[in-house]
Amino acid sequence: MPIFKAVKPQKVSDQVFEQIRDLIFRGQLKPGEQLPPERELVRTLGISRPPIREAINRLVARGLVEHRQGQGTFVRSPSSTPDNPLKAVLDGQEASLMDLLEVRLGLECNAAVMAARRATEEDIAPLKESLQRMVSLIKAGDYDFNEDTYFHIGIAYATKNTVQMHIMKNLYDLIRYGIKESLAHLYEDPANMETICTQHEAILDAICRHDPQAAFEAMHRHITFVIDFFTRRTTI
């Protein structure tokens, strides 16, 4: 007969770590933004200092936040992360942006379907905010790949699927890197950015209308557009 071990409740520090990490991944804590001081977190979360310190130390080790002497703890800027996390994650094996896009095509089309079925107003609100900021920046002749990343990661949270969320959280650095590289090249032609905005609007509209088929098709069009763009670049 197998030997069973007692089930332990999740550590408090793990819950704090996950809560702050999720706020960063969803863009509700942005690069350069300061975390509340320990005393404030103690009061807000209703716990003691040790688990908060443990959680923040894990966030530092994960590269999501940094301590600044005499100032506090801040969300790290993307510029302070590795230039190409693909190499680091894959132990030096050859992998291309196209490889990542092909994986995203499967993962995110399914995510769009689940989000269209299950997204609540609480899930949709940050998606709308990210999209509004993206559109405003592009109209002003600029872009921010962070907002694009928040949008796609936010869809994963809206799926309510634990496995989907876990996969996307663990791929966060790769997703952000891929979006950064893609937009840098797409930005060379302003018409591409207008197309990207229109595609994101279609994805969000389908999710808001809770139309899984339309969400799938909109996400498929979006990522396929980027794949086709890079395919043309390599064949010219």
Topology:
Blueprint: H1 12-25, H2 38-45, H3 49-61, E1 65-68, E2 72-75, H4 85-89, H5 97-118, H6 121-139, H7 145-158, H8 162-170, H9 172-186, H10 190-208, H11 212-235
Antiparallel strand pairs: 1-2
Helix pairs in contact: 1-3, 5-7, 5-9, 5-10, 5-11, 6-7, 6-10, 7-9, 10-11
Concise overview:
By secondary structure, the protein is mainly α. The protein folds into 2 domains: 12-80, Arc Repressor Mutant, subunit A (Orthogonal Bundle), CATH 1.10.10; 85-235, Four Helix Bundle (Hemerythrin (Met), subunit A) (Up-down Bundle), CATH 1.20.120. The chain is built from 11 helices and 2 strands, in the order αααββαααααααα.
Question: Radius of gyration from the CA trace?
Answer: 19 Å
Distance between the termini: 64 Å
Walk across the major sheet and give the strand order: 1-2
CATH architecture tag of the largest domain: Up-down Bundle
The structure class reads mainly alpha
* Tally of helical segments: 11
Low-confidence stretches: none
Report the β-strand fraction as a percent range: under 5%
Task: Give the oligomeric state.
Answer: single chain
Number of strands: 2
Order of helices and strands: HHHEEHHHHHHHH
Largest sheet: 2 strands, antiparallel
Helix content: 55-70%
At the first level of CATH, what is the class of the largest domain? Answer: Mainly Alpha
Overall number of domains: 2
User: What is the averaged pLDDT score?
Assistant: 88
The coarse silhouette is globular
CATH superfamily of the largest domain: GntR ligand-binding domain-like
**CATH fold group of the largest domain:** Four Helix Bundle (Hemerythrin (Met), subunit A)
